[in-house]
Amino acid sequence: MTVTDAVVQRGGIVRSGELRRLGFSDRALRTAVEAGDLLRPRRGWVAVPSSDPALRAAATAGVVLTCVTQAQRLGLWVLHADAAHVAAPAHSGSVRVSDPRTVLHWAEPIVPRAPDALVDPIENVLALAASCLPFEEALAIWESALERGVVQLPALHRLPFRGRARAVLTQATPFAGSGLESFIPPRLTWLRVSIVPQAWIAGHRVDFLIGDRLVLQIDGGTHVGAQREADNAHDAELMLLGYHVIRVGYAQVVHRWHVVQDAIARAVAQGLHLAER
């Protein structure tokens, strides 16, 4: 096995010390770098040219990818990700972040970071998202992680989350079908009406059942074509069964929530959420 093969097997970027422990000499490393087979993002690190640019940038800067940046890399639901979010050890003097838009987190991690890590453990990602983002956006990331099985609620409750992270944890559930759905329960608690996420009605799940008979459906980007036809058919079936359906889209939830909230409040005022007596 060549030194380049060893780097590829370890994700394309690795500390030089790890390669020395595997038996590769400094001369073998220099030869690979001089031949262009390996790059040196920073002293003590080597990478293959095809390695992840974000990981090379993290190694160069002496940071780990975290918060919304790492959440997005994990495929979690993120509302906004305009700048890179990274973390560094407190009082670190070796951080070199060149982009002024980069958000640098210095908070003490919940889970200790390995010295050769370039990405934060998911628990640290969640804790920093809670402290960095508006409550609803952080909750959406937490619930996305729970829904995908990246983390489990019992394990999260055993960790020493504090402040805003603890507040997010108290409301997080694994039942949100999308990030937008995480926004709904906190926004409607003032109604003092039961809100059941992912309720099973007429052979399908609905996003929310409010009270006994009011259904709230949240459309994402996939609700087009055949999916839209299936949704319309299910809406008709729900109405024939005596349910009342309010269906809204991404822009309404994110940018025109007051309109959605008004429609739900008026429906509740009319008793449309109540079962027929």
TrEMBL record:
Q: Which UniProt keywords apply?
A: Endonuclease, Hydrolase, Nuclease
Domain AbiEi antitoxin N-terminal residue range list: 7-44
Task: Cite the Pfam families for this sequence.
Answer: AbiEi_4, DUF559
**Does this UniProt record's set of keywords contain Ligase?**
no
Q: Which Gene3D superfamilies match?
A: VSR Endonuclease
Q: Which domain of life is it from?
A: Bacteria
**What's the protein here called?**
Very-short-patch-repair endonuclease
Q: Which organism is it from?
A: Microbacterium marinum
